[in-house]
Amino acid sequence: MSSNIAESKQVGNFCTHDYRVNCSDCRLNSICLPIALEAQDIERLDKIIQRSKPLHKGEHVHRENEPFTSVYAVRSGCLKAYKITGDGKEQVTGFHFPGELFGVDGIAKNSHMVSAKALETSAICEIPFKRLEELSTKLPSLQRHFFRLMSQEIAEDQQLITLLSKSSAEQRVAALLISISSRSAKLKLSATAFRLPMSRTDIGNYLGLTVETVSRIFSRFQKAEMLRVENKEICILQIEEMQQLAGL
Amino acid sequence: MSSNIAESKQVGNFCTHDYRVNCSDCRLNSICLPIALEAQDIERLDKIIQRSKPLHKGEHVHRENEPFTSVYAVRSGCLKAYKITGDGKEQVTGFHFPGELFGVDGIAKNSHMVSAKALETSAICEIPFKRLEELSTKLPSLQRHFFRLMSQEIAEDQQLITLLSKSSAEQRVAALLISISSRSAKLKLSATAFRLPMSRTDIGNYLGLTVETVSRIFSRFQKAEMLRVENKEICILQIEEMQQLAGL
DNA sequence: CGCCTGGTTGAGAATCATCAACATCTGTGG
DNA sequence: CCACAGATGTTGATGATTCTCAACCAGGCG
User: Fold this and answer.
1) CATH number at residue A197
2) Which end of chain A has less Cβ packing within 10 Å, N or C?
3) Handedness of CA B182, B186, B188, B189 (dihedral sign)
4) Which of B108, B149, B165 sits opposite A164 (nearest CB)?
5) Phi/psi-derived region of residue A70, left when phi > 0, alpha when psi is between -120 and 50, beta in every other case
6) Is B209 near strand D, with its CB below 7 A from some atom of it?
7) Which DSSP letter does residue B8 get?
């Protein structure tokens, strides 16, 4: 049992689940919504944000088809977004890590297109959309940043589309690992050692693969000495090769 | 040779390519950006929109990595969005029909993530983003509508993700046909008879399939009497079955 | 007319899914 | 603290779908 795996921090546990911290003090404010806001404007944003007790694993922030009222930011933990397809199967559409915004898919139809569920104990900031809209008309830099965040989600989705459309199973798994690695790095955590908060089933579902294939590919990577896998603990041993495989 | 195919109108040729028509007079104004704006506000929007001569087949509106300055609306014709992947292959990320907005992917990084190219002669409205942003702070309903449009693009991308992740080749092709059918209907054209403006290669690329597979599936649908294919002219003979196959 | 691009069809190969058995991990209650 | 049950993950054998390679056909344009 390698200690550098056992001791690796979780991406999701970057900061405490304390829900009373406000935006100004939040360690995530440089990568979250307040980015590009002046101190006084952060306070105005802070005033409309609602925080509540951390969610337990399995609890929902919102469900598919529920009326849309707010967008959300992850303070700690990890969530998965998913929807139920016409034939009753689950489709995982994304994972949300600390500092990331989610729920914006609901704006178009005023109801959520996906459900969002905590994969582990998670703290969430809720931002009532009406008030965010109002504030956006007053703070152009907030409007601009919000446009940016939505545009970024579009760009990421298109990245995933390319992945699903063109890549082999190995490339897909590599791409997910690299994605989580870079999000871990963005949180000032290790880019090579982290914990996967989601199940193999969720990974396979997200990547359009079966659990078995995901498992086999983890084994293959391990045999190739590119990866060290210990249940949910991951250590990327050859990050350049992994990035290459993921397609830069 | 069925005449109802030969006579079917093109989705892309809904309105003329005349580029002097302004928003108030545009036949698309009820489905395009001006939706939800008052007459006087439409004029303000109209003033910032730039129109130019129609693009010929193969010409670009913008290219990947070019600086982002504007978003665009399709007035007539059809475009494809695509990017070049790390290993030099093309990935088609979407098709744009009249009344649809595109180019919003560029907001996040201030440069376009994809190229947009005319698949046939197309007329485009260019909307300088800076001025759209300014106007949005003054017209809350425009801001809201623009949020909606971006959110809608996210929802559509996630639809495609599900398609690529879960569906068989037949289901994918059916889903694309149904998507084009409903866009055709939205333009007050036939939901069952239309022309495909894109090549089989583009279809395959978009759906994550090879040209050969797409071709075989068209043949299979034709043998099953669900479809009538005559080069690019399409007639959906059993639309309910096709919708079912596409996953509602 | 003939070239060239784009589309169709066929045969064989490869990747990934399916089915099945087994291993391990988690958490719950005794 | 242990034991057990259900969930989760791994591995192997087999098979289906889709890709690849290749030949051929049709249509558009010089």
Assistant:
1) 1.10.10.10
2) N
3) negative
4) B165
5) beta
6) yes
7) P
The low-confidence residues of chain A, meaning pLDDT below 70, are: 1-20, 248
Q: Dihedral sign, CA of B245, B199, B225, B237?
A: positive
Rounded, the Å distance between the CA of B211 and C1' of C10 is: 15
Instruction: Please answer whether residues B81 and B96 qualify as being in contact, where contact means their C-beta atoms are separated by less than 8 angstroms.
Output: yes
User: Which string of b and e fits A163-188 if b means at least 16 CB within 10 Å?
Assistant: bbbbbebbbbbbbbbbbbbebbebbe
Please tell me whether residues A90 and A168 are part of one structural domain. no
Q: Do A114 and B87 touch (CB under 8 A)?
A: no
Last residue of a domain, one of B87, B111, B142: B142
Name the residue of chain A whose CA is nearest to B203's CA: A165
pTM: 0.87
B179 and B104 together in one domain: no
Provide the domain count of chain B.
Answer: 2
Residue of chain B minimizing CA distance to A130: B144
- CATH at A102: 2.60.120.10
- A88 assigned to some structural domain: yes
B172 is a domain residue = yes
Looking at A142, A173, A191, which one is the last position of a domain?
A: A142
Query: Three-state DSSP class for A92?
Result: strand
Partner residue facing B85 (CB), from A149, A162, A208: A162
| Nearest CB partner across the interface for B108, out of A148, A164, A165 | A148
In chain B, residues with a C-beta closer than 8 Å to the C-beta of A151 are: 104-108, 150
> Residue B91 falls within a domain, yes or no?
yes
Residues A42 and A132 in one domain: yes
> Do residues B52 and B137 both lie within one domain?
yes
Residue of chain B with shortest Cα separation from A91: B162
Largest CA-CA distance found in chain A, in angstroms, rounded? 56
- Nearest residue for D7, CA–C1': A199
Q: Distance, in angstroms, between B197 CA and closest chain A CA? A: 21
Domain that holds residue B172: 3-8+163-246
Q: Largest Cα–Cα distance in chain B?
A: 56
CB within 8 Å: B157 and A161: yes
What is the average pLDDT score of chain B? 88
Please check whether residue B217 is in contact with residue B226, taking contact to mean a CB–CB distance below 8 angstroms: no
Closest nucleotide to A169 by C1' from CA: C16
Q: CA of A191, closest CA in chain B: separation in Å?
A: 22
Q: Tell me the pLDDT tens digit for each residue of A149-179.
A: 888 888 889 889 999 999 999 999 999 999 9
User: pLDDT tens string for chain B (248 positions)?
Assistant: 334 443 444 454 444 556 667 888 888 888 888 887 888 889 888 989 988 888 999 999 999 999 999 999 999 999 999 999 888 889 999 999 999 999 988 888 899 999 999 999 999 999 999 999 899 888 888 888 888 888 888 888 988 999 999 999 999 999 999 999 999 999 999 999 999 999 999 999 999 999 999 999 999 999 999 999 998 999 999 999 999 999 86
Same domain, A104 and A201: no
